[in-house]
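Hi C.,

You asked whether I'd gotten around to modeling the 417-residue construct. I have! Everything is below, sequence then structure, no commentary in between.
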Amino acid sequence: MLEIFVIGYCLYFLFTIYTSFMQIGFVQKAKNLKPIILEKDKYKEAANYAIEKEKIAIISSFYSFLIFLFWINFGLSYLDSLVQIDTVLLKAVVFVNLFIIINWILGLPFELYSTFKLDKKYGFSNMTISLYVKDTIKTSFLFLFFGSIVIAAISWIINAFESWWIWGFVFIFAVIILINMLYPVIRDKMYDKFDSLKDKELEEKIENLLDQVGFKSSGVFSVDASKRDNRLNAYFGGLGSTKRVVLFDTLIEKLTHNELLAVLGHELGHFKNGDIIKNIGIMGVVMFVFFAIFGNLSDEIFLGLSLNNEAYAIITFFLIFSPILSFFLMPLISFISRHNEYAADEFGSNLQSKKDLINALLKLANENKSFPLSHPIYIFFYYSHPPLVERFKELGYDVNTSSDDALKDSIYNNANI
């Protein structure tokens, strides 16, 4: 039985490598074509960034596969021999935390390279060593405190109920909903500085837009995202009474009022179309399937790993093998997501205007150096949003007939900067 999961992981590894190689080859050829959507210089730069990211992803995949082989062959059994604790809940907390911490340490070189080398090379990262250390300490504290509570709770459920996977699913699903509710509050208190908008005219326009579609929020905020990263973004955070509109300071700086409203109109399209509830429902179904599978594993699987069929082993097994199921379910989830994005684009363009949404997307693509073309198989597995070319086509914008100068004009004329 263990062999089935191992074969599944090997297939997952091979598929990720294959898609990365296909993407690299595709972008290598595409970057020499006539630039579309992006300015000429940024088109080349975005292509090079996409290629470098995939090369790192390939190396990281090989590295992760070696770590996987280490864990299943002797790493887990060796860790089990070190954690000699009789109390079931405490053993689960210690064992799982050590497993996660070791994996984090092993993956740290790739995180540091991406943050301090690759992203700085392409003008994204503003992260400093001191800020990185502060963020890491805060994240570690939150993980160790709240993560340990969740691990202990799941361990108790595993030991208390015969059909523990049903109650485990209910508990974890509730935890995820709670995290989504508290996320903007946690970000505000521990990581970012949330301020009310200094541009009162913009704030009034946003409030009117929210009222127009019946979206109730706890406020509109600007966040100092530029201290970490130069990318443009905005999001609706929280659930219920904690809902808020959050604009990156980089986005406010680069987009006009109308373009900002078009971006928010797109996000409000998700709200109006019920996409948030749909996504929660899809996440619930996927999680239920995961718990049904990992909650009915035989003793033989754990014997193959030289572990006991206990809470600590079940949770760790889940952490190791759940990425396989996630990867092969992603095409279906991404397909649904891409459909929702088209509908949100239509709603946002009708709420504001197609011109404003097109100009906003052009700026986002250029500032974020988002290469507009990808291999079909890469899109199939990884794209939760439609390719930029397809989004523009649906909005009636012909990317092939715009000259570099005309594109530049459409991006920067009348910009609120």
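If it helps when you're writing up: Confidence is low (pLDDT under 50) at residues 402-417.

Thanks,
B.
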